[in-house]
């Protein structure tokens, strides 16, 4: 009897497997087809500089898509690069109420370079339900240089003025002491 039950369970699993695979394939084909593209692939900047870029979210399906959520992500491409995404952009999430069939929406992103090094920025898209697939753009490669600004012309008055001021104060103090004696 146990052998018969085991045989029936194995047969049901084998017969049911193609049906489950077919259901997964149908569900995958019914999933919204969304693409995300960025208006550029790379840029170079310095720490503290602001830059903008645009993402285009396109609904490639025949059905409208409601409650689209787009999110900006920042990755450091080396272990030594610390990234706190909130420092890079205060508005990292944007919402699109409805994206009609075969329509697209452009979203503008403003970012400030915070950490030096090689970084990747990308935009991910899903719906407000959060259970749908997440689609990502290709990376925007960002090279951030350390902002070292040494302006010798502006430093010259300080470099020459401070010692001159100290010498002048010493001379005035010496003259005052002589007069008081």
What does this 3D model show about the protein?
The protein is rod-shaped, with a radius of gyration of 31 Å. It contains three helices and nine strands. With 181 residues, it is an alpha+beta fold. Strands 2, 4, 5, 7, 8 and 9 form a six-stranded mixed beta sheet that branches. A three-stranded antiparallel beta sheet has the order 1-3-6, with no helix packed on it.
Please give the structural blueprint:
Layout: H1 2-30, E1 34-38, E2 42-46, E3 50-59, E4 65-76, H2 85-88, E5 93-99, E6 104-112, E7 117-127, E8 135-136, E9 140-145, H3 152-180
Parallel strand pairs: 2-9
Antiparallel strand pairs: 1-3, 3-6, 4-5, 4-7, 7-8, 7-9
CATH superfamily of the largest domain: Immunoglobulins
- Determine and state the CATH class of the largest domain: Mainly Beta
How far is the first residue's CA from the last residue's CA?
124 Å
- Name the beta content range: 35-45%
Total number of helices: 3
What does the radius of gyration come to?
A: 31 Å
Known CATH architecture of the largest domain: Sandwich
What's the shape?
Answer: rod-shaped
Under CATH, the topology of the largest domain can be stated as Immunoglobulin-like
Tell me the major beta sheet.
Answer: 6 strands, mixed
SSE pattern, N- to C-terminal: HEEEEHEEEEEH
What average pLDDT do the residues reach? 80
Number of domains: 2
How many extended strands?
Answer: 9
Spans of at least 5 consecutive residues whose pLDDT stays below 50 are 1-29
Helix % is: 25-40%
Helix/strand class: alpha+beta
InterPro entries: Ig-like_fold
Signal peptide: 1-23
Transmembrane segments: 154-175
Keywords: Membrane, Signal, Transmembrane, Transmembrane helix
């Amino acid at each position: 009897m146990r052998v018969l039950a085991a045989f029936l369970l194995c047969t049901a699993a084998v017969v049911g497997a193609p049906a489950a695979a077919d259901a997964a394939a149908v569900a995958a084909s019914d999933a919204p087809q969304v693409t995300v593209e960025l208006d550029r692939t790379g840029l170079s900047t310095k720490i503290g500089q602001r830059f903008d870029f645009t993402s285009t979210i396109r609904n490639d399906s025949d059905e409208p898509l409601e409650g689209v959520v787009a999110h900006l992500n920042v990755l450091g491409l080396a272990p030594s690069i610390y990234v706190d995404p909130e420092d890079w952009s205060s508005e990292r999430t944007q919402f699109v109420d409805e994206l009609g069939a075969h329509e697209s929406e452009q979203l503008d992103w403003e970012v400030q370079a915070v950490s030096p090094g090689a970084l990747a920025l990308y935009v991910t898209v899903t719906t407000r339900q959060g259970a749908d697939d997440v689609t990502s753009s290709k990376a925007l490669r960002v090279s951030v240089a350390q902002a070292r600004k040494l302006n010798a012309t502006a430093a010259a008055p300080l470099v020459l003025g401070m010692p001159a001021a100290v010498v002048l104060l010493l001379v005035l103090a010496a003259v005052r002491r002589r007069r008081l004696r």
